[in-house]
Amino acid sequence: MTKYKQGLAFRYVQGTRYHRDRPLSDDLGSIPSPEQFKSYPDAERVILPDPDFSRPADLWQCLSQRRSKRKTTQEPLSLEELARLMWSAQGVTARSGMYLLRTAPSAGALYPFETYLYVDKVEELPQGIYHFNVPDFALERMQNGNFSREFVSASIGQPFVGRAAVVIIWTAMMLRCMTKYRDRAMRYIPMDLGHVCQNVQLAATAMGFGSCPIGAFYDDDFNELLGVDGEEETVLYLVTVGKL
Ligand SMILES: Cc1cc2nc3c(=O)[nH]c(=O)nc-3n(C[C@H](O)[C@H](O)[C@H](O)COP(=O)(O)O)c2cc1C
Predict the structure, then answer these.
(1) Helix H segments across 78-218?
(2) Does pTM top 0.85 for this prediction?
(3) Domains in the chain and their CATH numbers?
(4) Which of 62, 63, 65, 68 maximizes ligand 1 atoms within 8 Å of its Cβ, making it the mutation to test the pocket?
(5) pLDDT tens digits for 35-70?
(6) Of ligand 1's atoms, which has the minimum distance to the CA of residue 217?
């Protein structure tokens, strides 16, 4: 067999196929069900303001103008502009039984990820690392301070990360998806996050901001910065946003 076909990428896709004549089998045993949402009850909270949708944006224009833009300025975002970005990423738009349905689709409505934020330049918000609390539409402050240098270094030295007004970071919550989809979960989590990130890029475009997704980073560095274990919860994707 060709050597590259024995690699993880091929083996994963082949090993997680659905077949008509047999179920996907595994030796994973029972998988514990983690909580639907993560929260940091001891953290200081900032309730985000209601997003202002009074100025409509043209979807077709946003789609044609969306670009990954890395040259952003030092101008801060307002708290309301940040609220609009976070709502675009994970705003709750409907309830269905126990599910809080959001602005982006998710396989099985499981939303197997958490959203964090590095705030560098936002009016009224101290610099620091925050967790986004979905049901309360609030930020929970995890760490105070300027982490620009650490963020650039963890992003393999990509300098634009240090110029962004905010960096949104998403972790994969592996068990939240694996309880239903077992080994197939790692097909769905990145798909879910692709939808979420596109929402953020389109919202940034609608507001005239620059944004850039980031998939190249040192996993352990970001997991450590967020204080997550890197196994059951691990950083998967980031996006920078700033004014142009
Ligand atoms: C999954 C993913 C990971 C990416 N990672 C990076 C990255 O680490 N650094 C970067 O500068 N751009 C990154 N990008 C942005 C791409 O380079 C960009 O989307 C591509 O060049 C197409 O340009 P456009 O987004 O302006 O259409 C990433 C994009 C995606 C979708």
Answers:
(1) 79-90, 148-154, 174-181, 185-206
(2) yes
(3) 45-243 (3.40.109.10)
(4) 68
(5) 999 999 999 999 999 999 999 999 999 999 999 999
(6) 8
